């Protein structure tokens, strides 16, 4: 859904006559309008029921910041209500599809590699025991789980090409001239499967992210590209990683996942 308009961005004339791409693009625009209206209505409901001493969620936190900024004399950039609606729309809209797809791949890898699943469960038992479920505070003590999540993101590269962006000025990149207003994409799959960067990139190996002492190789972790790069990278980067950790750790702590024995 996120990339449904990509062909129209590259070839805008496709939206002016009947064709399958135009139909998908129009449906995508309609969904965006409906979803934005839903978020805007929720924002109005939050404003009507807002209490400064009880912050219920991210929408309340934004309202609290807006109200505070009205009381200070600073003339700098301030948070406006329309930015709140757009930001919350981006967070919810992008996370629904991306997180569900990531979790589908994670479950597939757990079924495929029972040895990896068993090692994850051993790490859970060592760190947590059976008396409580994982929390985000446990993350620094579970390096193999973090390595598994990053390898799942790298190996699947389930967002192989980013949503389209546009150059704001003429520029040069690796000797190539890119004119202003050129539509550009990032090929994340290529980055994550580059044999010059990754040893045996077509092998699923969470251990590649661990040093000899079992700690995480931070340089290699930062080389995985799934949320794009730079100032226009996905705003849900850290939130998504936190949610994936919680979903996967709780799942592994409570369950063992196997494939359907009646299906190959």
Question: Using DSSP, what is the number of strands?
Answer: 4
The residue-averaged pLDDT reads 88
* CATH level 4 superfamily of the largest domain: Cytochrome P450
Overall SS class: mainly alpha
Kindly provide the name of the CATH class of the largest domain. Mainly Alpha
What ranges have pLDDT less than 50 throughout 5 or more consecutive residues? none
Largest sheet composition? 2 strands, antiparallel
Order of helices and strands: HHHHHHEEEEHHH
Shape: globular
How big a fraction of the residues is strand?
under 5%
**Total domain units:** 2
What fold name stands as the CATH topology of the largest domain? Answer: Cytochrome p450
Measured between the Cα atoms of the first and last residue, the distance is: 30 Å
Describe the structure.
This is Cytochrome P450 1B1-like protein. InterPro entries: Cyt_P450 (IPR001128), Cyt_P450_CS (IPR017972), Cyt_P450_E_grp-I (IPR002401), Cyt_P450_sf (IPR036396). Belongs to the cytochrome P450 family. Its cofactor is heme. One of its GO terms (molecular function) is iron ion binding. The protein is mainly α. It has two domains: about 1-80, no CATH class; about 100-264, Cytochrome P450 (Cytochrome p450, Orthogonal Bundle). The chain has nine helices and four strands. It has helices at about 5-10, 20-50, 60-70, 80-110, 115-130, 145-155, 190, 220, 235-255; strands at about 165, 170-175, 175-180, 185. The protein has a two-stranded antiparallel ribbon. A two-stranded antiparallel ribbon has the order 2-3. Helix 4 packs across helix 6 and helix 4 runs parallel beside helix 9 (about 235-255). The longest helix has about 30 residues, at about 80-110. The two termini are about 30 Å apart.
